[in-house]
From TrEMBL:
Record's keyword annotation contains Hydrolase: yes
Family affiliation: Belongs to the peptidase C54 family.
Protein name (database record): Cysteine protease
One GO CC term on file: cytoplasm
GO-annotated molecular function: cysteine-type endopeptidase activity; protein-phosphatidylethanolamide deconjugating activity
Keyword terms: Autophagy, Cytoplasm, Hydrolase, Protease, Protein transport, Thiol protease, Transport
Recorded catalytic activity of this chain's protein: [protein]-C-terminal L-amino acid-glycyl-phosphatidylethanolamide + H2O = [protein]-C-terminal L-amino acid-glycine + a 1,2-diacyl-sn-glycero-3-phosphoethanolamine
Organism: Pararge aegeria aegeria
Residue ranges of domain Peptidase C54 catalytic in the record: 43-323
EC number(s) stated in the UniProt entry for this protein: 3.4.22.-
A Pfam family of this chain: Peptidase_C54
Gene Ontology biological-process annotations: aggrephagy; autophagosome assembly; mitophagy; piecemeal microautophagy of the nucleus; protein processing; protein transport
Subcellular localization(s) per the UniProt record: Cytoplasm
């Protein structure tokens, strides 16, 4: 199976030559809130990176939209980055932050997670569902998303997938409001109905939180004053990366070393297929395509200034710790990335985050929604 993973793995230049993914340096390497030594922990770094669910362009899937698109090459990279963030969140909630994938992995919970991102309309977070839900944010199928758009789409989709047991909060105006998050995440067990919970378990007091903070860190290029704040975000144990990239090219930024960011690149076009129960050789090979053996890196100053930093708080204690760190570290920077406050500013008006989970219908009810497609190159990422 290791040989199969080597075969399935595709480097950016199409060969199997080991890339210079992690520099030989004494600087700490930070990946999704964990600290590593670039010299002593190289194998562990690569093992943990390959355990991330890697979402890339796909081809040959069921057509989307009026134009019948069967590939997202050229327009789906930001959607794929959103899928990767959500994949990390689901693995940490339903498995653990130390969970490790191998080509032999057939854990049923893992398979349930990866199946949620397959290219089929019934999958809660398939390219079909993400693209069609984008219409609610004013993006037609085939149009390029920004970090905030994909965050808003994921926030809507997760409501329809009760198994995920996850709340997504998207911060507004560079401000994290504790009051709004607590209203979303603290669950009253007295509300009764647990029929949609796995195995009729009692609803937890705290719903795990995926916090996404969209930011603009410059006009046409990133302002160097924000670099220390970005590094701090990668170091927090709640970090699950940054949705960002280079100008006109979305990347999933998973960590940093020195003044460089480490990322997974969705710009590899792979065939569409199903992992299912991972019994056949074809299914095993397909599972390998959801994992990347090596990451890449670029200087932080090459980043596009439009980003969305992402944090996962599995417990209320995690959230309290994150809030304290934001207040004592991030907000002490000369130019803070964002702010945190207890209550909503008066001029904001009522919250739109209070979605009634008891009254939502299953995602299947909107999977057949058809959208218009505007074939405009201006909205596309041209590679």
């Amino acid at each position: 199976m290791d040989a199969m993973f080597d075969i399935c793995y595709l480097t950016p230049d199409g060969n199997n030559v080991e890339p210079d993914d992690i520099p030989k340096t004494k600087d700490n390497v930070w990946i999704l809130g964990k600290k590593y030594s670039a010299i002593q922990d190289l194998d562990r770094i690569r093992r943990d990176i390959s355990s991330i669910i890697w979402c890339t362009y796909r081809k040959g899937f069921v057509p989307i939209g009026d134009e019948g698109l069967t590939s997202d090459k050229g327009w789906g990279c930001m959607l794929r980055c959103g899928q990767m963030v959500l994949g990390v969140a689901l693995v940490r909630v339903h498995l653990s932050s130390d969970w490790v994938w191998t080509p032999e992995t057939r854990d049923p919970t893992y398979l349930k997670i990866v199946q949620r991102f397959e290219e089929r309309k019934q999958a809660p977070y398939s390219i079909h569902q993400v693209a069609l839900m984008g219409a609610c944010e004013g993006k037609e199928v085939g149009q390029w998303f920004g970090p905030n758009t994909v965050a808003q789409v994921l926030k809507k989709l997760v409501v329809y997938d009760k198994w995920s047991s996850l709340v997504i909060h998207v911060a507004l105006d560079n401000t994290v409001v504790k009051e709004d998050i607590l209203k979303q995440c603290i669950v009253n067990n007295d509300r009764g109905d647990t029929s949609d919970c796995p195995d009729k378990l009692v609803v937890p007091d705290w719903m795990p939180l995926l916090l996404i903070v969209p930011l603009r860190l410059g006009l046409s290029e990133i302002n160097p004053v924000y670099l220390d704040g970005i590094k701090t975000c990668f170091e927090l144990p709640q970090s699950i990366g940054v949705i960002g990239g280079k100008p006109n090219q979305a990347l999933y930024l998973i960590g940093c070393v020195g003044d460089e960011v480490i990322y997974l690149d969705p710009h590899t076009t792979q065939r569409s297929g199903l992992v299912e129960n991972k019994m056949t050789d074809e299914q095993k090979e397909m599972d390998c395509t959801y994992h990347c053996k090596y990451a890449s890196r670029i200087p932080m100053l090459y980043m596009d200034p439009s980003v969305a930093v992402c944090f996962l708080c599995r417990t209320k204690s995690d959230f309290n710790e994150l809030c304290l760190t934001i207040e004592t570290k991030l907000m002490k920077e000369s130019q803070p990335l964002f702010e945190i406050c207890d209550k909503r500013p008066a001029h904001w008006g009522p919250s739109t985050n209070d979605i009634d989970l008891q009254n939502t219908t299953l995602f299947a009810e909107f999977e057949e929604v058809d959208r218009q497609f505007d074939d405009s190159d201006d909205e596309f990422e041209i590679l």
